[in-house]
């Protein structure tokens, strides 16, 4: 089963990074679900700006942790380098 890390752009222009095994479902949850990430729930709508695919959850989580530590400028540079 593949895993994905992703970066969303929120309505307030902030960025959110996450991890999932079903990118389409998770994006829908971020935009419509009453459950899930509080951060995006109050900043809807969100738009997928970037993603990467991994073979294991461990790899995906490591990459997610790495990206979450980055400053906004570095995340934007990554987004510009590779569109979803």
Describe what this molecule looks like in 3D:
By secondary structure, this protein is an alpha+beta fold. It has one domain: GIY-YIG endonuclease (3-Layer(aba) Sandwich). The protein has a 3-stranded antiparallel β-sheet with strand order 2-1-3, sandwiched between helices. 43% of the residues lie in helices and 25% in strands.
Tell me the total number of β-strands: 3
The averaged pLDDT comes out at: 95
Fraction in beta strands: 25-35%
| Largest beta sheet: strand ordering | 2-1-3
Low-confidence segments, given as residue ranges, are none
Order of helix and strand elements from N to C terminus: EEHHEHH
Features:
single chain; 84 residues; alpha+beta; GIY-YIG endonuclease; three-stranded antiparallel β-sheet; 4 helices; 25% strand; GIY-YIG domain-containing protein; UPF0213_domain; GIY-YIG_endonuc_sf; GIY-YIG_endonuc
